[in-house]
């Protein structure tokens, strides 16, 4: 279960609105991100808190992306300190997170909203600083007072019935660890095998997949050995039954493949530190070229594999490119999500659009730290 805190004006309506959705486990009305402890409703005009709803949700049934789409459908994100007839800083809009993994999702939702309005978006985007449960008479207020005031349209409370169902699911699998991963070297198109740890990671993921009861209808893999072998171990299927597709291969780094991160020049380190400034050498690929080829495959699969569970075995940078494209990230945020060795990321196709699930499968030994160290 995960939690997000949403401020959208009067919390009576916001709480009732989110209570309708399958996957929302519980909600709580309260006061968030203010300047004093234990605020009371009558004090909000001077405590700096926003009326906020704590939303606990089951990420296997509803995603944060979906929750934020619903959120933006019932607020005016361009209205500062006002929603409906309510005015004051306590009625400001805000998204307050408790998990760093939620940041890319929130950023994508804000960017999407900015394209739909001519005025600036004024929704706060901050880590949760504090949250205080509101007085009991505020909890589930509209359930107990159906005729009570609400700034949200009545039709919005029937939105759950309009939710689209997924038409297919894509599982993005990153290969297991190699010696070059361990040595912190750029692999690119080098055909490097898994090391012993990588083989073990793949077997651990095999057990997780079986425990979850996941069945893959179709399997695609990068042609590189580390991806193919990972795919064999995770699925128990011989590689002769895979579809090998070059579009799943890792980004080409040209003549710097095999180099340690610590030995890269300052310009080459831009690949990690400032992707917008990165310029490939020789036959190396650009981020745009990588994105175009792998998203070409993703879009093709929507037409060729409808209704199926499809596994794609690929590589770290290639998978980051998929996440960045679907979330419409600015290039500076290309690396803002963790993709560990043998991680499986879930991507649904819903009403023709890609939806990245919050749920993912990981093996403990595959986790990697955020950012890159250039120390030897």
From TrEMBL:
Record carries keyword Oxidoreductase: yes
Active site, renumbered: 10, 175, 250
GO molecular function, one term: L-methionine:thioredoxin-disulfide S-oxidoreductase activity
Superkingdom: Bacteria
Assigned keywords, A-Z: Oxidoreductase
TM regions (residue ranges): none
EC number: 1.8.4.11
EC class name: oxidoreductase
Gene Ontology CC terms: cytoplasm
Parts forming coiled coils: none
Ranges of residues in domain Peptide methionine sulphoxide reductase MsrA: 3-151
Keyword Oxidoreductase: yes
Pfam families: His_Phos_1, PMSR
GO biological process: cellular response to oxidative stress
Binding site for substrate: 174-181, 226
Family recorded in the similarity comment: Belongs to the MsrA Met sulfoxide reductase family.
Described purpose of this protein according to its UniProt entry: Has an important function as a repair enzyme for proteins that have been inactivated by oxidation. Catalyzes the reversible oxidation-reduction of methionine sulfoxide in proteins to methionine.
Record-given protein name: Peptide methionine sulfoxide reductase MsrA
Organism for this UniProt entry: Baileyella intestinalis
Lineage, broadest ranks: Bacteria, Bacillati, Bacillota, Clostridia, Peptostreptococcales
């Amino acid at each position: 279960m995960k939690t997000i805190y949403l401020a959208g004006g009067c919390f009576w309506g916001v709480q009732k609105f989110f209570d309708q959705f399958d996957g929302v486990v519980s909600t709580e009305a309260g006061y968030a991100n203010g300047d004093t402890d234990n605020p009371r409703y009558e004090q909000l005009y001077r405590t700096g808190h926003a009326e906020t709803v704590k939303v606990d949700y089951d990420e296997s049934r509803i995603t944060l992306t979906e929750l934020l789409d619903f959120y933006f459908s019932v607020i005016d994100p361009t209205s500062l300190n006002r929603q409906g007839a309510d005015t004051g800083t306590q009625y400001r809009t805000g998204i307050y997170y408790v998990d760093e993994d939620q940041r890319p999702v929130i950023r994508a939702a804000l960017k999407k909203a900015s394209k739909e309005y001519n005025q600036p978006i004024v929704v706060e985007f901050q880590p949760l600083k504090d949250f205080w449960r509101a007085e009991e008479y505020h909890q589930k207020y509209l359930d107990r007072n159906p005729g009570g005031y609400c700034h949200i349209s009545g039709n919005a409370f029937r939105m759950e019935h309009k939710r689209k169902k997924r038409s297919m699911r894509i599982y993005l699998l990153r290969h297991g660890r190699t010696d070059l991963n361990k040595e912190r070297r750029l692999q690119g198109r080098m055909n490097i095998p898994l090391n012993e740890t990588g083989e073990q990671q793949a077997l651990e993921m095999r057990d997780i997949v079986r425990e979850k009861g996941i069945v893959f209808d179709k399997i695609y893999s990068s042609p590189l050995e580390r991806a193919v072998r990972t795919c064999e171990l995770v699925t128990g299927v011989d590689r002769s039954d895979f579809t090998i597709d070059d579009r799943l291969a890792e980004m080409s780094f040209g003549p710097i493949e095999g180099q340690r991160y610590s030995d890269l020049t300052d310009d080459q380190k831009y690949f990690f530190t400032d992707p917008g400034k990165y310029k490939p050498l020789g036959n190396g690929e650009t981020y745009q070229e990588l994105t175009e080829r792998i998203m070409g495959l993703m879009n093709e699969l929507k037409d060729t594999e409808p209704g199926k569970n499809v596994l794609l075995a690929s590589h770290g940078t290639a998978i980051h490119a998929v996440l960045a494209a679907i979330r419409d990230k600015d290039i500076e945020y290309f690396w803002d999500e963790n993709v560990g060795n043998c991680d499986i990321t879930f991507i649904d196709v819903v009403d023709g659009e890609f939806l990245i699930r919050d749920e993912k499968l990981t093996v403990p030994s595959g986790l990697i730290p955020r950012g890159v160290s250039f120390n030897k």
